[in-house]
Write a structure and sequence with these properties.
Rossmann fold; 7-stranded mixed β-sheet; 4-stranded antiparallel β-sheet; 17 helices
Length: 583
């Protein structure tokens, strides 16, 4: 682990101004230390020589003024460094959130939610010692000893030589100890992330664990991970304390060596009393920054380890297809209007890392405005991958998705050239397990339409068949739903999700098995609601069964990622196992 991670500094531009101020104030403090040492040495030498009280009082007054100035500059440097740390944490959290959103659900599904939560909260909070103390001290560790050496050399070159020879011992010992600390700190953080992820899984799955009698066993697992994390933390702290002992002992021995040689030469009359006092006062200041930087490095290693994980996430490339011309034969993309444009999948292949076969294998199909398409097939057929493509949650490994106004596709635009946010504004999505946030019923319905009026929200809820049960809630539309909407039944959550989609009034509606886990009566009611409200929209309904009681105008059957039946689609790919049935 390097003392200064260039990736972290690159992603933390917000701290540069604050760090510059902190270092500048640190250098000013160093100048004040040199002045203070000179004044104290002069005052003590004058007192020993019997100088008048007025002159001595003036010297001591100046020393007190310098001491007060040191306190002010130290306070200012601490404030600047802490503000820099706060700015960095805020900037990294914003970047992390934005990049995770861009990576999308496909990437997020392979991560541990507990680890990401730990990294973005406790992990980044541990950056305070790094930016507020270690980085300013790291810069001063190079500048302050040089300034002290120059001042000591002007007074006594022999003492300066002794300091210069012993000074490198401290960073050498610090590096040796740091090599031992690195692996232990990384293990400590890995165990903490594992503990956070496992604890989150246990909390979310507690009803299932209780049902199958595995709650106590998981409690034992959490206890084991907690004990391992405690042991790793104590081992890291043990090394940190030992490193402090080594650094303090090295600095003390070096200071003692200077004190012995300057004392012997003072007794021999080879050096003046004031010079000897100045050297003795400044010698500890030469070693202090190096000791401090070693101590602060160990205190900041947890934050640096967590920030390294954040940098890894920020540098994770987005899964995008190769750049394509915005419009075939033209230069600029045309904003999509899915009320009129035709979506074409041209030999699309979707593959996920670690899977033996493609999720979609050279699938070609068209989606025309106003189509009501039932997408069916067994589990693992590629239905959800098809929706993920249309939602821009994943990108094709091969092939292209285009939109065009004309039926011949001459004006086709590759959707890879269209801004993803602009594309998604044309889409409403009802997933198989809709996520309701901890807020009111009204705020959950208005999620995709933040500026919606209360009347619009009530109209969408009525259209989804949710108005009746919402009216029965304690505070109606102002009722808090709690985390994940657990106060509602599965059917009620599904109706809230449908109301959310209807309020968005998007031309393309994607439904991912919206009734898969509902009882037959509730499922029939929701399907009837969808059937009534799909007029004027393009609807894709994913279902396990071939056919759609609500009245599909077209059907697509997928099996093992291949198109085996498609009514109204074009261009079956030869050799891909696809069969196209014209409408």
């Amino acid at each position: 682990m390097r003392p200064v991670d260039p990736r972290l500094l690159r992603h933390a531009a917000a701290a540069r101004g604050y760090l510059t101020v902190a270092v500048a104030l640190g250098l000013l403090t160093t100048g004040l230390i040199l002045a203070q040492a000179g004044l104290l040495a002069h005052a003590l030498a004058s007192a020993a020589a019997g100088t008048g009280a007025v002159a001595l009082a003036a010297t001591l007054g100046a020393a007190l003024a310098v001491l007060a100035a040191r306190a002010v500059t130290a306070y200012g440097g601490e404030i600047a460094a802490l503000r820099g740390a706060a700015a960095v944490k805020s900037q990294l959290r914003r970047k992390l959130t934005a990049h995770v959103v861009r990576l999308g659900p496909a990437w997020l599904g392979g991560q541990q939610a507990g680890e990401l939560a730990a990294v973005s909260t406790k992990g980044l909070d541990a950056l305070d010692p790094y930016f507020a103390r270690f980085l300013p001290q790291f810069v001063l560790a190079f500048l302050v000893p040089v300034a002290v050496l120059i001042r000591v050399a002007l007074a006594d070159w022999i003492s300066a030589l002794v300091i210069a020879v012993t000074l490198p011992l401290i960073p050498v010992f610090a590096v040796l100890v740091g090599l031992q600390t690195r692996a232990r700190t990384q293990r400590q953080w890995q165990l903490l992330a594992r503990l956070g992820g496992h604890f989150l899984d246990v909390v979310e799955g507690l009803p299932t664990l209780k049902l199958f009698g595995r709650a106590d066993a998981q409690a034992d697992v959490i206890r084991d991970v907690t004990d391992a994390h405690r042991s790793a933390t104590m081992a890291t702290l043990r090394i940190a304390f030992l490193s402090s002992l080594v650094l303090e002992l090295s600095a003390a021995l070096a200071t003692a060596l200077v004190a012995v040689e300057i004392g012997l030469r003072l007794l021999a009359g080879h050096v003046g009393y004031q010079t000897a006092l100045l050297v003795l006062l400044l010698t500890p200041e030469a070693y202090l920054p190096l000791r401090a930087v070693g101590t602060q490095f160990h205190a900041s290693m947890e934050g640096v380890t967590a920030a390294g994980r954040v940098c890894d996430i920020l540098e994770t490339p987005l899964q995008v297809s190769a750049p394509a011309p915005a419009r075939l034969g033209t230069a600029a993309p045309v904003p999509p209007d899915l009320r009129h444009d035709i979506i074409r999948l041209n030999a699309i292949t979707v593959a996920y890392p670690g899977r033996p076969r493609a999720a979609l294998d050279h699938v070609s199909c068209s989606i025309r405005p106003g189509d009501r398409i039932a997408v069916s097939g067994p589990s693992g057929a590629g239905k959800s991958s098809l929706l993920a493509l249309l939602l821009r949650f994943t990108e094709p490994a091969d092939g292209r998705i285009t939109v065009s106004r004309g039926g011949d596709g001459a004006d086709a635009v590759d959707i890879a050239s269209i801004d993803a946010a602009a594309w998604r504004r044309q889409i409403a999505w009802v997933p198989q397990h809709p996520h309701l946030f901890e807020g009111t019923v009204a705020s959950n319905i208005a999620l995709g339409q933040p500026g919606a009026t209360a009347a619009d929200i009530e109209q969408a809820a009525a259209a989804a068949g949710a108005a009746e049960f919402i009216a029965a809630l304690p505070s109606g539309y102002a009722t808090p739903l709690g985390e994940r909407g657990t106060r509602l039944s599965a059917g009620q959550r599904q109706r809230i999700a449908l109301a959310r989609a209807f309020l968005r009034d998007a031309p393309l509606l994607l439904l991912d098995e919206p009734v898969a886990h509902l009882d037959p009566i509730t499922a029939r009611q929701i399907m009837d609601t969808i059937g009534r409200l799909m007029a004027g929209r393009t609807v894709l309904l994913v279902t396990h069964r071939l056919g759609w009681s609500g009245g599909a105008s077209r059907e697509i059957l997928l099996d093992q990622g291949r198109l085996v039946l498609a009514t109204g689609c074009f261009g079956a790919v030869p050799g891909a196992g696809a069969l196209a049935v014209p409408s």
